[in-house]
């Protein structure tokens, strides 16, 4: 499961009691599951968009988060940025996946909803929307926001965790529950952390979509 974060950097580093710089890191909004178990009744076709894609609720979440960030860092809060978009104040970096770039764009639509930089008199132009530049690099070259394709140490640590006695004891103490879940999933028998975490993530997303 990829955990992609988005980076919002605003101006320069602060010293003393005057705040001059802020970095805000956040995760993408609600998305569809990335794969699920065999017997899951909610397969890709149920959601109407490809697996791993941002849902309408995820877009709403990000728009609201952008509004919240503006209240925190804008003229009504810490006054680090103005209501009007300026590339000298705001730099945005996103993970190179559709759900991440969509999340960043939705967030920025909320962050700069009052920016007077949008065109007027253009039929069909979204209300008060200013396109804000979004920066990415290929995910297999992203040493800031990506981990699975970049950090071999991650897999070493995951294997160490799976082999720790505490984890083995957890599996053993919950064997009956885990076995029941595994049998009913329709998947090949697998009690690894990755298999259980993937199933739990799918269920969590499906509950959030109710």
Task: Summarize this structure as a short list of keywords or feature phrases.
210 residues, mainly alpha, 3-stranded antiparallel sheet, 7 helices, 3 strands, 40% helix, disordered N terminus
Order of helices and strands: EEHHEHHHHH
- Uncertain stretches of 5 or more adjacent residues: 1-15
Percent strand equals 5-15%
Q: Mind telling me the C-alpha Rg?
A: 21 Å
User: Which structural class should the secondary elements be placed in?
Assistant: mainly alpha
General shape? elongated
Q: How many E-type strands?
A: 3
Work out the helicity level.
40-55%
Query: How would a textbook summarize the main sheet?
Result: 3 strands, antiparallel
Could you report the average pLDDT, rounded to the nearest whole number? 86
Number of helices: 7
Q: Strand order, main sheet: write it out.
A: 2-1-3
| Assembly state of the chains shown | single chain
Topology:
Blueprint: E1 5-10, E2 22-27, H1 44-47, H2 56-73, E3 90-93, H3 98-111, H4 152-163, H5 165-173, H6 175-185, H7 193-208
Antiparallel strand pairs: 1-2, 1-3
Helix pairs in contact: 2-3
């Amino acid at each position: 499961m990829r955990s992609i974060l988005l980076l919002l950097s605003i101006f320069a580093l602060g010293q003393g009691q005057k705040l001059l710089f802020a970095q805000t890191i956040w995760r993408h909004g609600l998305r569809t599951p990335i794969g699920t178990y065999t017997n899951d009744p909610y397969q890709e076709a149920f959601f109407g968009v490809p697996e791993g894609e941002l849902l309408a609720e995820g877009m709403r979440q990000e728009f609201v988060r952008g509004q919240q960030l503006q209240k925190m860092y804008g003229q009504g809060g810490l006054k680090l940025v103005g209501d009007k978009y300026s590339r000298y104040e705001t730099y945005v970096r996103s993970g190179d996946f559709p759900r991440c770039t969509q999340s960043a764009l939705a967030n920025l639509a909320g962050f700069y909803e009052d920016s007077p930089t949008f065109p007027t008199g253009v039929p069909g132009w979204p209300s008060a929307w200013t396109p804000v530049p979004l920066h990415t690099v290929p995910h297999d070259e992203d040493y800031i926001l990506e981990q699975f394709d970049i950090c071999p140490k991650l897999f070493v640590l995951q294997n160490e965790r799976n082999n720790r006695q505490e984890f083995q004891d957890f599996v053993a103490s919950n064997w009956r529950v885990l076995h029941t879940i595994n049998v009913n999933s329709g998947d090949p028998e697998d009690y690894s952390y990755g298999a259980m975490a993937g199933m739990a993530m799918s269920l969590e997303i499906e509950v959030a979509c109710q």
